[in-house]
Amino acid sequence: MQNTYKIAVLDLNAGNPNEGLRCIKELVAEFLAKEGVQGNFDVFEVRLEAQVPQVEDYDIFISSGGPGSPLISGAAWEGKYFGMLDAILHHNLSQPVKKHLFLICHSFQLACLHWDLAKVTKRRSTSFGILPIYKTLSGQREILFEGLPDPFYAVDSRDYQVVGPHEWKLDTLDGKVLCREKIRDHVPLERAVMAIRFSKEIFGVQFHPEADSVGMLHYFQRPDMRKKIVKHFGKKKYLEMIEHLDDDDKIMKTNHTIIPRFLQLGAESIDRSKLISA
User: Fold this and answer.
1) What is the domain-level CATH number for residue 30?
2) Regarding beta strands 60-63 and 4-11, do their DSSP bridges make them parallel or antiparallel, or are they unpaired?
């Protein structure tokens, strides 16, 4: 019997127009359109409407990035969101058929804070562009990165960073730090963590693996964004980012690899577990 997958997409953009959410929905729709795959997805407006899915109603969860500070403020939506994170974690510790969760950027920072797995601090300056992501030794063995070079490239856009991972706490979940940001020889600061496998079913990244060339080109060519990028990073950096969008080995390779493989492997894990527990 063919399993039907229910996927929850959590929108943390707080009502701001965002190409990343479009990309996530397209990747999920492409997965559900594959031959032999059945299912549907729902989108939840987390920060404006405090919507979060009931964990028991969904199999796979993808939680987006978003603007602003990830530092906990006590907003009503935070309690509901953190409750959902804990419910997924507790479900997976006790149930044979696991829930699969992918956390992007703002969501990744929130999870690190809530589970006290690392520090989240404000950066001295914004990290923005199509930047190299460097694998750790664990990252070189990570199945979601299989086929990606080291370093691989992804869109990075953040004013905050995850640093100082608490390795012993990650060990209790069988978690691993998988990637770090580029080496900056002239900056005597710890390199930020760019990806963590929290557990076999929970994965988080600081960058934007969902980004595609079409969306980023549209974003970069907006007059306000072009002016902002040139002002803060220079015309050379702006032209370099545009050039990277035409390179199939840059963000499109990342787009085609990480989230599609997460969805596929999550579905296969669900299938195996349901077959064993039937």
Assistant:
1) 3.40.50.880
2) parallel
Q: Which domain holds residue 178?
A: 4-123+135-148+160-212+254-277
Q: Which helix (H) or strand (E) holds 160?
A: strand 152-163
Q: What is the DSSP string of 124-158?
A: EEEEEEEEEEEE-HHHHT-GGGTT--SSEEEEEEE
The answer as to whether 154 is a domain residue is no
Residues in contact with 1: Cβ distance below 8 Å, sequence separation at least 6, in sequence order: none
pLDDT, tens digit (0-9, with 9 covering 90-100), for 92-118: 999 999 999 999 999 999 999 999 999
User: Cβ distance 135 to 182 under 8 Å?
Assistant: no
Burial 137-156 (b: 16+ CB within 10 A, else e): eebeebebbeebeebbbbbb
Distances (CA, A) of 76 to 40, 50, 51, 82, 269: 28, 7, 10, 10, 33
Number of domains in the chain: 1
Q: 63-94, pLDDT tens digit by residue? A: 999 999 999 888 999 999 999 999 999 999 99
pTM of the model: 0.94
Please give the Cα distance from 259 to 265 (Å, whole number): 10
